[in-house]
Specification:
It is a single chain. With 466 residues, this protein is mainly α. The protein has one domain (4-228, 250-461): MFS general substrate transporter like domains (Growth Hormone, Chain: A, Up-down Bundle), CATH 1.20.1250. The chain has 18 helices and 2 strands. Strands 1-2 form a two-stranded antiparallel ribbon. The model is unreliable at 184-194 and 442-466 (pLDDT under 50).
Length: 466
């Protein structure tokens, strides 16, 4: 019989699976589906800019007042609003709903990470195991289920858009503009190279389906997820913690040099995800094959990401984080070099799937191990730590989407490579320090039903034994 903590991990994972089946599918299509005047990419920039703003103050306030469960539900409602905005895409519908999504994004992810960390430490205390090992395992299970959302969301878009009778053939002369081709050609043609937009009825059918699965996600979490920190949230509201302390919790954690040193790693996660969903889908797949292939290619990314997330989550206890991060960095480095050299052509169909498969394997490491690393290093300040994670990752997204419309693809790949190399330099410093002076495990927080952990600046964090 599965434990209560494991059951909750499954509920959170399935809820996110349904929610990001919708959002992930829409994100992959934005640069191609709403390409006019760069509206799709602009909406994604607003999403992640809003996440940065919300990361500054909302996660600690919402989590400590509402608890993790209801913060997750509130964040999911914000995500579903973005799907409604895509029913009639325009500047007056996409931008406001993008801002709403962004404001709910950081609390959603911070609450999820906090919930999994609490559950992992609780189960480790109950079983007499190590907290970091259980946390790694729980994050691996989460991302195994969650990352498969890319498969289902993109399968829906490919099957629905595949019904379009007006699929255009890509002319041979257009291929010179695809990939990291001549910089001058790429920039000058970025707005003139067009793709046939699917029939509006098919767009409505797809977006309506996405709204449906988003609502299902909200119902799953609302009904089946245990409110494990209800007492802590109630106690926090009763204590009337000064607003300034909660508001500035995210920034106070920046006094920890380890978090500052992890900023390049965290930002790279945003850069590499935005490249695949925004640049690869548009400049390689849509340009050379057509928009109806985007879903199939991203399915390959999602399937590889999902399987590798599960494997790496369990493998980490034997290999350690550093070995997996090294594998991811080497794989991404080879992919970037390959994308700089490759000129996509319709006759090389298999190659279009090789890059997202390798990218998915690397992203599985960046996601599972970075989340777990934050949970281990900052176990006493989980809400603020994961808010920082979302803030810096989102900054990577914003920067990448911001220069998307005026830099040629070659330069974007060089920027991605530079951030990767910076990450390779800074991350080992934190890992070496953690190896020499391991962060104490938070088992003592679960020896009683409710324990209070006092931080150096008297910011109270309550944790519950489940």
């Amino acid at each position: 019989m599965i434990s209560r903590n494991f059951k909750n991990v499954l509920v959170v994972s399935v809820g996110f699976l349904f929610l990001f089946t919708a959002y992930g599918g829409l994100q992959s299509l934005q640069s191609s589906l709403n390409a006019k005047d760069g509206m799709g990419v602009a909406s994604l920039s607003v999403v992640y800019a809003s996440i940065i703003v919300s990361s500054m103050f909302l996660p600690p306030i919402m989590i400590k007042n509402l608890g993790c469960k209801w913060t997750i539900v509130a964040g999911m409602v914000c995500y579903v609003s973005y799907s409604f905005g895509n029913l009639y895409p325009g500047w007056y519908t996409l931008i406001p709903t993008s801002a709403i999504l962004g404001l709910g994004g950081s609390p959603l992810w911070s609450a999820k990470c906090t919930y999994l960390t609490i559950s992992g430490n609780s189960q480790a205390a109950k079983d007499g195991g190590r907290g970091p090992d259980v946390i790694n395992q729980y994050f691996g299970i989460f991302f195994f289920i969650f990352q498969s959302s890319a498969v289902w969301g993109n399968l829906m878009s490919s099957l629905i858009f595949g019904q379009d009778l007006n699929i255009a053939n890509i002319p041979e002369e257009q291929l010179i503009y695809c990939g990291a081709a001549d910089c001058g050609l790429n920039v000058s043609s970025s707005n003139s190279t067009t793709t046939t937009r699917p029939a509006q009825e098919l767009v409505w059918k797809l977006v309506g389906s996405y709204i449906g699965v988003g609502v299902v996600a909200i119902l799953i979490v609302s009904v089946f997820l245990d409110n494990i920190d209800r007492e802590q949230a109630s106690e926090f509201r009763g204590n009337h913690e000064p607003f300034g302390r909660t508001f500035l919790a995210t920034f106070r954690l920046l006094r920890d040099w380890r978090l500052v040193t992890l900023i390049p790693l965290t930002m790279y996660s945003g850069f590499e995800q935005s490249f695949l969903s925004g640049e690869y889908t548009k400049n390689y797949v849509t340009c050379a094959l057509g928009i109806h292939y985007v879903g199939f290619v991203m399915m390959c990314f999602g399937a590889t990401n999902s399987v590798c997330s599960f494997i790496f989550g369990r493998l980490a206890r034997y290999t350690g984080r550093a070995a997996l991060f090294s594998l991811a960095a080497l794989t991404n480095f080879c992919c970037i070099i390959g994308l700089l050299m490759w000129r996509p052509h319709q006759d090389e169909l298999a190659v279009f799937f090789v890059f997202p498969a390798l990218w998915g394997m690397s992203d599985a490491v960046w996601q599972t191990q970075t989340n777990a690393l934050y949970g281990v290093l900052f176990s006493a300040d989980k809400e603020a730590a994961f808010a920082n994670y979302r803030m810096w990752e989102s900054l990577g997204f914003v920067i990448a989407f911001a220069y998307s419309t005026f830099l040629c693809l070659e330069y974007k790949l060089y920027i991605l490579l530079a951030v990767l190399l910076l990450t390779v330099v800074t991350y080992p410093i934190v890992e070496y320090h953690e190896h020499k002076k391991p962060t104490p495990e938070a088992k003592e927080a679960f020896l009683t039903h409710v324990d209070t952990v006092q931080t150096e600046d008297n910011f109270i964090i309550c944790q519950s034994k489940v």
